Amino acid sequence: MIESQTLTVTEMKCGGCESNIKGKLSAISGVISVAASAKNNEISIEYNNELVDIDTIKATIIAAGFGV
Fold it and tell me: N or C: at which end does the chain have fewer Cβ atoms within 10 angstroms?
């Protein structure tokens, strides 16, 4: 089933940070789309929860050096 979530992400300060997070998350099987806003400290993500869970998404953000 397709789900959408908006997560607060800390330490995201610029467009480079946005690109970094979007690239890491987009590489995960099951992630459909990612939008990131450093200004709002948020990411919006659409994913297939049969292929990936929110804990994996959060762990990927943390592994990239950001807080969630």
Answer: N
Show Cβ contacts of residue 40 under 8 Å, excluding neighbours closer than 6 positions. none
Query: Which CATH number covers residue 16?
Result: 3.30.70.100
Which residue in this structure is represented by tokens 């919006």? 44
Q: Give the pLDDT of the chain (68 residues) as one tens digit per residue.
A: 999 999 999 999 999 999 999 999 999 999 999 999 999 999 999 999 999 999 999 999 999 999 99
Q: Residue type for 65, please?
A: G
Give the span between the Cα atoms of 39 and 51, in whole angstroms.
30
pLDDT at 37: 97
| CB contact at 8 A, 55 and 7 | no
In degrees, rounded to 5, the angle at the alpha carbon of residue 13 between the alpha carbons of residues 17 and 58 is 55
